[in-house]
Inverse folding.
């Protein structure tokens, strides 16, 4: 069986080794270890492999807490001590900035991270009736598979919601449409937990009674979703409190629907918003743009400072709810629908003194390419993909005259390879 020294981790949490001119990506291996491995897939320039034995273990190796780790695809790094996970993600960010964007941050921001367990306030579980087992499975997909992991608990969910997995399996298994419920979405607010059942066929009257009993027994609200996300509607109880999360430092409450995009980690999100506001430093009377603004996660704290805030977002439903959130919080902020991936829209942005970008994984290339001589002097970029951040940073630094003043990681998803980051660009 081949043996190799492990040099580093890749963005999926796999150990990287170099063997005979090939790069070998080894599931379960950690930097500094000498490991035995078996290949899963071999290509001319690389191999995919899995660890069979660590001949010398990293000091950062720990025992995974979850019994499903290694099978469930939800986590990839539970075998690595949490602080070492953060350090690994910092290296991923720095490497991407240099190798893709040819830029280095003048200063490294302190990593933003919170609790490593029970942090996840949103989850989308698959559900599947497995005839051979005579049971329904509810959970994340297995690693590199379309099969649903046979889970009984989830350590990254809060304990109360983790304890719902087995009762959910039992509930769906009792339904007449048990093979027509492919998905369960969990959304946790400050005052209520909502479960959204995706339905490919309507519930029978008996099914509806079972769902009501489940909601009452577990003190949750059940929603039904017969089609796309916009079709989700509350089912029982109808008088449950609304979903919202708090940004207590700014005295703000942000309401949302269970199928809306929100950050999954409220604790880390609070720290992220605080850091972004410190870097952006909005002032009374200053015009600030929040692009890809969503529900107002950053725009509303900006407005609390007294700045003139314009939030732009491509999803009309999110814009509607951002306006409602501004009204509920007594804040003046303007929210408009705009497709920020379109070049003409990017070129017609209002002038501003500062800008915050929080794009999806595709990044904000049309925005940064459209910046002209009257571009804002300060840009704070919140990224969920180091590669597109690095690409956009290269344009900002080498074409648009910005300095990458600071950058750092945000560990929004502990135990996964997902790297979020925060960067400050300054001009002049």
């Amino acid at each position: 069986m081949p043996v190799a020294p492990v040099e580093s981790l890749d963005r999926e949490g796999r150990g990287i080794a170099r063997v005979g001119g090939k790069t070998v990506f080894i599931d379960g291996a950690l930097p500094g270890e000498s490991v035995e491995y078996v290949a899963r897939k071999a290509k001319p320039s690389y191999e995919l492999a899995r660890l069979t034995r660590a001949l010398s273990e990293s000091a950062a190796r720990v025992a995974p807490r979850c019994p499903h780790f290694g099978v469930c695809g939800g986590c990839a790094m539970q075998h690595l001590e949490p602080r070492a996970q953060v350090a690994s993600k910092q290296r991923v960010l720095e490497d991407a900035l240099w190798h893709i964007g040819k830029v280095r941050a003048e200063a490294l921001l302190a990593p933003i991270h919170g609790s490593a367990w029970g942090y996840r306030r949103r989850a989308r579980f698959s559900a599947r009736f497995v005839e051979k087992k005579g049971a329904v499975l509810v959970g994340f997909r297995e690693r590199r598979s379309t099969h649903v992991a046979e889970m009984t608990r989830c350590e990254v969910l809060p304990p109360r919601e983790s304890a719902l997995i087995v009762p959910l399996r039992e509930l769906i298994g009792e339904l007449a449409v048990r093979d027509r419920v492919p998905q369960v979405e969990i959304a946790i607010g400050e005052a209520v937990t909502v479960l959204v059942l995706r339905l490919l066929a309507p519930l029978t009257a008996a099914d509806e009674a079972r769902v009501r009993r489940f909601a009452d027994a577990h003190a949750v609200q059940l929603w039904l979703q017969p089609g796309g996300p916009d079709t989700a509607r509350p089912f029982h109880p109808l008088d449950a409190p609304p979903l919202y999360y708090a940004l207590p430092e700014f005295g703000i409450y942000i309401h949302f629907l269970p199928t809306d995009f929100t950050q999954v980690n409220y604790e880390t999100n609070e720290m992220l918003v605080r850091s972004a506001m410190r870097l952006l430093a909005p002032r009374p009377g200053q015009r600030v743009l929040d692009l890809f603004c969503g529900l107002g996660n950053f725009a509303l704290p900006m407005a609390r400072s007294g700045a003139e805030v314009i939030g732009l977002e491509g999803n009309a439903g999110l814009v509607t709810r951002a306006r409602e959130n501004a009204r509920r919080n007594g804040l003046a902020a303007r929210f408009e629908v705009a497709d920020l991936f379109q070049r003409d829209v990017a070129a017609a942005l209002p002038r501003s003194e500062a800008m915050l970008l929080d794009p999806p994984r595709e990044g904000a290339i049309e925005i940064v390419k459209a910046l002209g001589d009257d571009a804002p002097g300060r840009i704070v970029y919140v990224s969920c993909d180091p590669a597109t951040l690095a690409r956009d940073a290269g344009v900002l630094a080498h074409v648009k005259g910005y300095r990458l003043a600071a950058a750092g990681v945000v560990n929004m998803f502990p135990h996964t390879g997902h790297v979020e980051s925060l960067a400050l660009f300054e001009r002049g």
User: Anything to note?
Assistant: The longest strand covers residues 46-56.
